[in-house]
Amino acid sequence: MNAKTIRRLWKNLRFRGSAAYWERRYSRGRTSGSGSQDRLAEFKAEVLNRFVADNDIGSVIEFGCGDGNQLALARYPRYTGLDVSRKAIELCTERFASDPSKTFVHHVPDSFRHRDELSADLALSLDVVYHLVEDDVFEKYMEHLFGAARRYVVVYSSNHDEPSESRSAFGIHVRHRRFVDYVERNFASWRMVEEIPNRHPFDPEDPRPTSFANFYVFERIAE
After folding, report:
1. Distances (CA, A) of 197 to 42, 43, 143, 204
2. What angle do helix axes 18-27 and 86-95 make, rounded to 10 degrees?
3. 13 vs 17, 71, 95, CA distance in Å?
4. I want to staple 70 with a disulfide (CB 3.0 to 4.6 A). Which of 36, 46, 99, 180 is the partner?
5. Residue 34 is part of a domain; what is its CATH number?
6. What total number of domains does the chain contain?
7. Tens of pLDDT along 44-84?
């Protein structure tokens, strides 16, 4: 057994779930990752800022605001950011303390309840879905995400199934899913209206400035 395999097994043994992973990560001074920095962050901001402007979006709620680096590029009239990490909420609250248009709330999935102040025209999920490795955590997250949206949901994620044993290629905190199929099966009031390809598709030879995620836009169907 080589050193790389031993390190991977050690990390797997220490993994205590998605929420605990991100709390520990932010508490140790690490960032949300390369997806919220540099050209990937700029690409996402360009797409989202245009979408908000073109669709007259008055309010945005994001499930998984992270360290706020992506948010710093956003132009949203009103924003509520949620995260399972208390440390992430502390970081964002401090970073945007002078901006009254932004509010941050600790997301506790087991006690979360939908209410007016936690709903918005647009609900966002950016680089989160493929980090939800537990089935029950994924299912609750999707329920909360779509339940909080009045008009649109935009998800930036991979959309393919990958066996759990392959997760070691990206780390124990990554699990790819065909989440669009899940939405079609479980959220009858919503339909996917657009897929926006990533301008910087994944390159295994140089993965950090690239991404395996695309944008997926869902619209509520009029009842």
Report:
1. 14, 11, 25, 17
2. 50
3. 11, 33, 34
4. 36
5. 3.40.50.150
6. 1
7. 999 999 999 999 999 999 999 988 999 999 999 999 999 99
